């Protein structure tokens, strides 16, 4: 029996299982999924879990069931791609013939002293739960600092205002404008929304140090009650330690077929893969679909296409509380009620098809 091992049940891992099960998986192939938690977590909604506007169960989806799918729950401690073994804490070693690494990302602290020790995050469901506890146990009118004004920081700030309008929320961003990767019209809309809701944006900030209850911006100390870090991501620690070729961001370089250049049996999907797009759930799913095509062809000993089709992403949608949103879809900027409804609809469809 050929052994396909999936490391991580994120968006990429779920899409691979969805495509192979129940009818596309060859009878001589068995899948083993290894994950720390017994469910798929909707990472795109962790900001709402942390803010307290979505309950825990609403950001979880059960894994599929199949007679040739085994799910191992535990923490992965080592990947030996030469010996084709994965070590899991308390579970021993698990052999593989084909491996798909989808271990996701972690916060990147940019060597800021104290950032790791004294800030909260939303890059995992465990971290989001801790952040929820810290934010929602605050006394009234406490000060909250959010470092980073990308998509995650913006959504967290707006959702936290919805949950706790009493809080003094401030966003610290290095750029001149928030959401600098988006069109100016969109950035202006979000900036105006923050002004209307008394969320202060500190542009051109430079966080130089973090201590317990103190954030240093340009070395000036600012007392705050909770600091949430949303200022960048990096691949999972196990991937960072893997001795393979990587790009400047530490993501793994791959062939057009999404496998390691020196090993056609090891694939990387999602945030750890070096791709010409920003990491996203949509990208992980698109990549996973192509990995399934490659796996099926190789298992059948068929020739691979000379060129894989270009992965086309539909766009980005973000929320500003329950009623407003923003987005960039097919190069069109969307603001207001429509993008919020679109995002809610896409989330519902995802849970309906996977739950």
From TrEMBL:
InterPro entries: FAD/NAD-bd_sf, FAD/NAD-binding_dom, NADH-Q_oxidoreductase
SUPFAM superfamilies to which the protein is assigned, alphabetical: FAD/NAD(P)-binding domain (SSF51905)
GO process terms (BP): aerobic electron transport chain
GO molecular function annotations of the record: NAD(P)H dehydrogenase (quinone) activity
Superkingdom in the source lineage: Bacteria
Limits of the FAD/NAD(P)-binding domain: 3-281
Cofactor: FAD
Species this chain originates from: Perspicuibacillus lycopersici
Keywords: FAD, Flavoprotein, Oxidoreductase
Protein name: NAD(P)/FAD-dependent oxidoreductase
Stated family: Belongs to the NADH dehydrogenase family.
């Amino acid at each position: 029996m050929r052994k396909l091992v999936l490391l991580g049940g994120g968006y990429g891992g779920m899409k691979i299982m969805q495509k192979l099960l129940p009818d596309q998986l060859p009878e001589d192939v068995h899948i083993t999924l290894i994950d720390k938690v017994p469910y798929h977590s909707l990472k795109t909604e962790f900001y709402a879990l942390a803010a307290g506007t979505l309950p825990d169960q609403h950001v979880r989806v059960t894994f599929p069931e199949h007679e040739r799918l085994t799910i191992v729950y535990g923490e992965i401690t080592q990947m030996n791609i030469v010996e084709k073994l994965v070590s899991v804490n308390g579970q021993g070693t698990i052999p593989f013939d084909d491996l798909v690494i989808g271990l996701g990302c972690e916060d990147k602290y940019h060597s800021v002293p104290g950032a790791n020790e004294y800030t909260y995050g939303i890059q995992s469901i465990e971290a989001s739960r801790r952040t929820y506890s810290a934010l929602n146990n605050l006394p009234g009118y406490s000060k909250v600092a959010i470092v980073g004004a990308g998509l995650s920081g913006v959504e967290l700030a707006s959702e936290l205002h919805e949950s706790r309008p009493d809080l003094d929320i401030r966003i610290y961003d290095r750029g001149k404008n928030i959401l600098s990767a988006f069109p100016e019209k969109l950035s202006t809309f979000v900036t105006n929304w923050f002004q209307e809701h008394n969320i202060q944006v500190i542009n051109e900030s430079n966080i130089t140090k973090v201590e317990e209850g103190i954030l240093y911006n340009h070395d000036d100390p600012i007392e705050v009650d909770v600091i949430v870090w949303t200022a960048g991501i990096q691949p999972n620690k196990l991937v960072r330690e893997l001795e393979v070729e990587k790009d400047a961001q530490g993501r793994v370089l791959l062939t057009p077929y999404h496998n390691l250049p020196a090993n056609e049996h090891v694939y990387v999907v999602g945030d750890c893969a070096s791709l010409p797009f920003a990491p996203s759930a949509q990208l992980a799913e698109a990549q996973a679909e192509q990995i399934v095509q490659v796996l099926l062809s190789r298992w059948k000993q068929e020739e691979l296409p000379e060129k894989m089709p270009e992965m086309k992403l539909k766009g980005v949608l973000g929320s500003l509380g329950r009623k407003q949103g923003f987005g960039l879809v097919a190069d069109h900027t969307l603001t207001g009620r429509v993008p919020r409804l679109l995002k809610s609809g896409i989330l519902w469809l995802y849970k309906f098809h996977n739950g």
